[in-house]
């Protein structure tokens, strides 16, 4: 491989450090779309996620002279910066949230390191699993996850108690987790 | 605690519905044994459920990025007012409110006698209209003192800050309206010692004294940055048509332009409450945390949305810096008109939706337009104070 190609990560990182604009164009090409998808899955809001992506690249630019990126860790670095931007914007400071948020960050970062074909496979598997959920459970799950309704709204629409909504949601999550565990 | 219970809590947590109590339970649980891994797996399962491929505008985002880093390089932060004005950054609370309203509409329950606007005054001058209808013209560049015709009011301008004094013997509280045209700014000290910096195209109505009042109330259209003198017995209230803000802390910034659709309040530090109106018992008041913005729109004035924001872009105007944070050209055009006192006509409709991020420090309008042009193609003609934006010329 050409040593002076942006496909060569150490070279790309060097060029990012010295503020070479084309290197940043390449960084956008590499990660912008995926980062937006990723942050949308986490924040639930495409607009927010585009904003976070933008702030992330600007942050990397601002800190370019201090960039310290381990071998093949560029992607992890980019996504880590993004998650920190996201967390900073939420400003939850208590110790409970901090621990849980850092676990969440670990969980999300692990996802970025998965090979893309395997990732696709998992996405399909999740779709299949959702499809196979018991009818009412599936209905509740889709209302919550796809339509973004609150538990209270679901309970009102389906005339069931909030507790029942919760049980359905927990059951769906458990099934998905069990199915995915062999992969994850 | 059954396994079902904990699963339910985790699910609630992931869906951002967990209470503080559940958070504490989850915290204790996750510390035990292999639970961290179980928790992570559930988070990942949820992530996969939420994940979908969407089209994203990477190229536009990159252009936007180039715009931001370019303007960052260009800007040298200029501290405001050649050292004559207060250093606003050190203060505690800052709010921005935007709204649309008629000033007089707001004054119904204060003791204003409806005063006709003096049509003779030059629209490009800062004016102070007194209770009796008299209009004084203010020049912030020149220090001096002006007296009203009946001698009851003394207005002094010292180093860009306006102060007003009433003759004690009169003892009557009067209402004043200060109007700042496009292209100008003004600082003013109120009777209680609070200071207000008014941005271009703003007006504020305020009493000559707050003495004997339960609250200190002023009305605003446009945008202003306030440093409020502490007085817990007499809360300070900023009224705009669609939003009332009660100040518990000390300093804030209010912006309330008639032609803006969104009203918003941004708090940097301290404490404020925002509501549709602060009168009556059952009006919901939204308390803000620092670094939060509350906003409502013309379409739904009762619905306040609260979100976390980067406050610096909301208050950079107090230092003479124009900041756009991923703002639509439609809104940028309005702000340029106010800042530079020009009229901008946009004949290139598609441009309105385009977004731009950047900062400008004291550049002239043409410099600003050319910078935006570098990232968003359009052409324009400038004739005196009229700028016409058109589709880009064919190359």
From TrEMBL, chain A:
InterPro entries: RNA_pol_sigma-70-like, RNA_pol_sigma-70_dom, RNA_pol_sigma70_bacteroid, RNA_pol_sigma70_r2, RNA_pol_sigma70_r4_t2, RNA_pol_sigma_r2, RNA_pol_sigma_r3/r4-like, Tscrpt_reg_LuxR_C
Keywords from the named record: Sigma factor, Transcription, Transcription regulation
HTH luxR-type domain location: 148-175
Entries under Pfam families matching the protein: Sigma70_r2, Sigma70_r4_2
Entry superkingdom: Bacteria
Family: Belongs to the sigma-70 factor family. ECF subfamily.
The name this protein goes by in its record: RNA polymerase sigma-70 factor
Species of origin: Flagellimonas yonaguniensis
Automatic annotation (TrEMBL), chain B:
Superkingdom of the source species: Bacteria
Organism: Flagellimonas yonaguniensis
Occurrences of domain FecR protein (ranges): 177-272
UniProt keyword terms in alphabetical order: Membrane, Transmembrane, Transmembrane helix
Signal sequence, renumbered to the chain: none
InterPro entries in alphabetical order: FecR, FecR_C, Ferrdict_sens_TM
Domain Protein FecR C-terminal per the UniProt entry, residue ranges: 322-389
Protein name in UniProt: FecR domain-containing protein
Transmembrane segments: 88-107
């Amino acid at each position: 491989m050409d040593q002076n190609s942006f496909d060569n990560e150490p070279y790309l990182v060097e060029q990012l450090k010295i503020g070479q604009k084309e290197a940043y164009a390449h960084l956008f090409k590499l990660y912008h779309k995926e980062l937006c998808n990723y942050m949308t899955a986490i924040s639930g809001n495409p607009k927010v996620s585009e904003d976070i992506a933008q702030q992330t690249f600007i942050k990397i630019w601002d800190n370019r002279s201090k960039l310290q990126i381990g071998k093949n860790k560029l992607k992890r670095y980019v996504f880590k910066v993004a998650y920190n931007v996201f967390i900073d914007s939420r400003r939850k400071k208590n110790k409970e949230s901090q621990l849980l948020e850092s676990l969440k960050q670990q969980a999300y970062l692990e996802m970025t390191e998965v090979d893309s074909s395997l990732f696709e496979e998992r996405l399909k598997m999740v779709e299949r699993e959702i499809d196979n959920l018991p009818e009412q459970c599936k209905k509740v799950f889709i209302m919550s996850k796809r339509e973004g309704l609150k538990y209270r709204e679901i309970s009102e629409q389906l005339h069931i108690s909030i507790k029942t909504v919760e049980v359905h949601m927990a059951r769906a999550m458990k099934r998905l987790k069990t199915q995915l565990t062999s992969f994850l | 605690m059954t396994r079902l219970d904990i699963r339910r809590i985790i699910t609630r947590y992931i869906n951002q519905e967990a209470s503080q109590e559940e958070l504490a339970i989850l915290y204790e649980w996750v510390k035990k044994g292999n639970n961290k891994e179980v928790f992570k797996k559930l988070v990942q399962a949820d992530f996969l459920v939420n994940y979908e491929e969407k089209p994203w505008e990477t190229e536009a985002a990159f252009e936007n990025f180039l715009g931001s880093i370019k303007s960052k390089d260009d800007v040298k932060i200029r501290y405001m007012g050649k050292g004559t004005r207060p250093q606003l950054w050190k203060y505690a609370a800052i709010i921005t409110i935007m709204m649309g309203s008629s000033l007089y509409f707001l004054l119904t329950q204060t003791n204003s006698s409806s005063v006709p606007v003096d049509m003779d005054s030059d629209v490009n001058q800062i004016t102070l209209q007194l209770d009796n209808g008299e209009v004084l013209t203010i020049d912030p560049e020149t220090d001096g003192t002006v007296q009203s015709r009946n001698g009851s009011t003394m207005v002094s301008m010292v180093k860009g800050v306006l102060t007003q004094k009433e003759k004690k013997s009169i003892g009557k509280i009067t209402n004043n309206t200060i109007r700042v045209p496009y292209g100008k700014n003004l600082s003013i000290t109120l009777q209680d010692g609070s200071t207000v910096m008014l941005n271009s195209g703003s007006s504020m109505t305020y009493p000559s004294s707050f003495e004997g009042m339960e609250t200190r109330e002023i009305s605003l259209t446009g945008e202003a940055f306030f440093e409020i003198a502490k007085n817990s017995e007499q809360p300070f209230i900023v009224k705009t048509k669609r939003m009332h803000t009660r100040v518990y802390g000390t300093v804030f910034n209010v912006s309330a332009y008639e032609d803006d659709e969104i009203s918003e309040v941004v708090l940097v530090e301290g404490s404020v409450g925002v509501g549709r109106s602060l009168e009556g018992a059952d009006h919901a008041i939204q308390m803000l945390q620092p670094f939060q913005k509350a906003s409502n729109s013309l379409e739904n004035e009762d619905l306040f949305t609260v979100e976390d924001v980067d406050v610096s872009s909301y208050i950079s105007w107090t230092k003479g810096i124009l900041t756009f944070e991923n703002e639509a050209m439609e809104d940028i055009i309005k702000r340029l008109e106010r800042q530079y006192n020009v009229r901008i006509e946009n004949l290139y409709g598609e441009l309105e939706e385009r977004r731009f991020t950047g900062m400008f420090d004291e550049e002239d309008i043409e410099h600003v337009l050319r910078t935006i042009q570098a990232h968003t193609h359009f052409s324009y003609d400038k004739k005196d104070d009229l700028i016409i934006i058109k589709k880009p010329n064919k190359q």
